[in-house]
Design brief:
mainly alpha, two-stranded antiparallel ribbon, 5% strand
Length: 249
């Protein structure tokens, strides 16, 4: 099914296999969704996903941070070679059919992939409102503490791939799931650099995101720039996770 603008509000957006939506309608939907989001539930869900392995709870914190960073902007229209209109600032294609079944597959297999794409984060956050609230347990806190400890223990020259391999020894997951978790912590601003920030209180338009001069890049912005010397942005870490006394500072 393909949902178009004049059907907005008649049913949940996430009930549809395909969604075609304009820039204006997308941001109305996203804004309405964000007003119903509880930030504590987001961090609870992220931590809960670590020991449970329930990836349905993984991508929402990063999605929320990205959505807030880009919410208020004026559409900067350009015509793509295909003839479709898109916004240069956020990258959204007006009324282009989005295949939501692919997003659902990416969610259950890897915990969400495209959480730096505005339609994807709007879709995921809408799904989040349907989920039952969860609470992290001791295993979740132990895993996250070990993750943080391992980051502070790496050499200054370490790369994101080194983190991915380390994390594989800490909690049950596959390579792709760990890659997505690291990318998401970059979006949140926990893995970032002084020159290349995440999206907490900051937004870099898609067209202006610098990427390393490499033939192959496995990591999203800003994690693609992260090195061991950058460690963790503890200010952002404490902003999101400081309310948990079980986590190390």
């Amino acid at each position: 099914m393909c949902l178009r603008g004049n059907n907005l509000g008649k049913q949940k957006m996430t009930d549809n296999v395909q969604i075609s939506i304009s820039h204006e309608e997308l941001y109305k939907w996203l804004s309405a969704t964000l007003t119903n989001i509880n930030e504590e539930r987001l961090t609870d869900a992220f931590l809960y996903s670590l020991s449970s392995g329930d990836l349905n709870y993984r991508p929402y914190l990063a999605s929320y941070v990205y959505a807030l960073s880009i919410l208020n902007h004026k559409q900067d229209v350009e015509v793509a070679p295909s003839g479709n209109l898109f916004c240069r600032y956020c990258g959204h294609f007006d009324n282009y059919p989005e295949d939501c079944s692919i997003l659902d597959v990416e969610l259950v297999r890897w915990g969400g992939v495209r959480v730096n794409d505005i339609f994807t984060v709007a879709y995921y956050l809408d799904k989040f409102l349907k989920l039952e609230p969860v609470k992290p347990n001791k295993k979740d806190f132990d895993i996250f503490n070990r993750i943080i400890d391992s980051v502070f223990g790496v050499d200054d020259s370490a790369k994101p791939r080194d983190l991915e391999k380390l994390f594989g020894k800490i909690f049950k997951s596959n390579k792709g799931q760990r890659e997505m978790l690291i990318n998401q912590l970059g979006i949140v601003g926990i893995f970032e650099t002084n020159e290349h920030k995440g999206y907490h209180n900051n937004h870099i338009p898609r067209a202006l995101r610098a990427l390393p001069a490499l033939s192959k890049i496995d990591w999203s912005y800003p994690v693609c720039w992260w090195r061991g010397k950058d460690k963790i942005n503890m200010e952002n870490f404490n902003y999101f996770f400081g309310r948990y006394p079980e986590l190390k500072r």
